[in-house]
Write a structure and sequence with these properties.
The protein has about 240 residues and is of the alpha/beta class. The protein is built from eleven helices and seven strands.
Length: about 240
């Protein structure tokens, strides 16, 4: 993650279409969040203290607060425009969610108080981090968690080989074109879709890791019971327990 990748999500036009674009580009988002919530071994009535790293438009936090009806979430994001949309989405949960505009590469400074958080979760955010930054953030995540607390992450990975990555991208592009069904000029055909995605990933500084690298970082951060809970091509739900 860089200041440029944060700024990419603080552009009104990008934010206005974010959720609609996610439905086209990441139709597994709902399934991934569902899996992440199911993995958490807590009664639905428990009062959990949670942090959403990169709250975006509030999608994951909304599902979390629905699932754990007595819990509270601190949502962190670097983009004011995203936080504004999250506040609108989460209006009915206003008493149970707090927002913090900040760069979660400085998580230790943003949320002082080691061992105070029950759950840390994130979706489609950490792949913007450079590997050293991701390693640092994950170590701070573990520091913040209570013993037995959980971290779950719904995010992107990169294939182990260029040939496999190329095939995943072909499947990605054809799926977007099919779902758009000619309703969006950006995704009118494979060529326009590839150009849009290439520009998007360049602007947002996407830096996904392989599956093995992702799980290794979770383990080296100090988490146990680390696993890939769900995987389809380039999308992964992973996590572990302190």
């Amino acid at each position: 993650m860089t200041e440029r990748s944060i700024a990419a999500y603080d552009v009104l036009q990008r934010v206005k279409t974010y959720d609609a674009d996610m439905e086209l580009m990441h139709p597994n988002r709902a399934k991934m969040v569902q899996v992440a919530l199911e993995v958490l071994p807590f009664p639905k009535t428990v009062s959990l203290r949670a942090i959403d790293l990169g709250i975006g438009t509030g999608y994951f936090t909304e599902r979390f607060l629905d699932h754990f009806a007595n819990s509270r979430v601190l949502g962190i994001d670097g983009a004011q425009a995203m936080v504004d949309l999250a506040k609108a989405r989460l209006r009915s949960f206003a008493s149970r969610v707090e927002f913090f505009i900040g760069d979660f590469r400085q998580l230790q400074q943003l949320v002082p108080g080691a061992g105070t958080i029950d759950v840390m979760f994130s979706a489609y955010a950490l792949h913007h981090l450079r590997r050293p930054d991701k390693e640092t953030v994950l170590k701070h995540v573990v520091e913040l968690l209570v013993p037995g607390g959980w971290f779950v992450n719904a995010d992107l990975i990169v294939a182990d080989s260029p040939a496999l990555q190329s095939r995943f991208q072909e499947l990605r592009v054809s799926g977007i074109v099919e779902r758009a069904s000619g309703s969006d000029n950006r995704f009118a055909d494979a060529g326009s879709t590839r150009r849009f995605l290439a520009d998007l990933e360049k602007n947002e500084r996407d830096q996904p890791l392989t599956l093995a690298e992702d799980l290794a970082l979770l383990r080296s951060s100090g988490l146990k019971n680390v696993s890939a809970f769900w995987l389809e091509y380039r999308e992964l739900v992973s996590g572990g327990q302190k």
